[in-house]
Amino acid sequence: MGHPVRTADGRLLVAEEWGDPSGSPVVLLHGTPGTRLGTLLPGLAAEHPGFRFLSYDRPGYGDSQRAPGRRVADAARDAAAVADAFDVERFAVVGRSGGGPHALACAALLPDRVWAAAVLVGLAPPDAAGLDWYAGMTPFNVHEYGLARAHLDGRDPGGLERDLAARAAVLRRDPERLLDDLRDGLSPHDLPVVEDPRVRTVLLRTYREALRVSHHGWLDDCLALAGPWGFDVASVTAPVLLWHGLDDAFSPVAHTRWLAGRIPGAEPVLVPDAGHFAAQLALPGVLRWLGGQGAGR
Fold first, then answer.
1. In 3D, which of 80, 98, 123 has the Cα closest to residue 35?
2. pLDDT digit string (tens) for 137-148?
3. What DSSP string runs through 201-222?
C-alpha cells in the first residue's frame, strides 16, 4: 500500500521504506515510467544492512497526486517532504534513467541535506551546450522526447498526451508490451538483463503500478526532462558518481560524459559491454561507493 506523505502544498505522495532502520538513508529516484516498486531488486536491502532505503512515486504515478507543470527541480521539495516524513535529516540520492536528473536536482537544491548523489544511465539537460542531445538515442525515446518538445514550444501541444494515453491504455492490460516496444532499442547486452526473472518481475510490477491510475506521471516526466530543469548541474557540490553502460541507446553515454565535464569533481564510471538496463544490477557497486563517501558514519 505504501506510506502516504503530505507535501507542504497539500499533495499526496506514496512512499516506501526498506532495509536497516538505523542504516544510512538513501533516497532512490525511479525511472520513466516507473514507481518506487522499481528501485530495488528482491533481497538487495537485506544484503546491505548498513543502509535504509526510501523511495516515492513521483507526482502522477500510481496514487501520488499529479503536479501539472512540474519541473525536474521540483523533485527536491518532494524528496525533502519524504525524508521529513521518515524523520531523516541528511541522505544520499540515487537516480536511475529518468530519475537521474531528479537526483541531481536534490543534490543541487538541498546542499545541506544531500551528502552524495549517484546517477545511473542519466540524461543531460536539453539545453546542454555542445551536446547533440538525440545522437545515438533509440527511435522510441527520440519519438517521445520529440513530442515533448513539440508540446513545450506549441507546435503540437496535444501530440504527446494522445500518444502516451494510448500507450498507457494498452500497457494497463499487458505491461509486457512496453518491454516488447523497447526491444528494438536494446543492446545485445541488455537482453539477458531484462530476461532475468528478478529484473523482469520488478520492471513489470513498476510499469503496472506507474500506469494503474493514469498516464500523467509519464507525460509530466517527459515534459520535465525535455524542458528547462530549473537548476544548474554545475552548482552541485556533493560527491557525484555517474554510472553508464557504453552500449546504452536509451540514454546515450555522451550525456554522462557531458555531465562529467560540468559537475565539479564528478566521478564517471563507464562500463563496457553494458546497456541501459544493466543499471538494474549496478546498485551494489553504487552502495560500495557511498560507503567510501562516509555512509554509515
1. 98
2. 999 999 999 999
3. HHHHHHHHHHTSS-SHHHHHHH
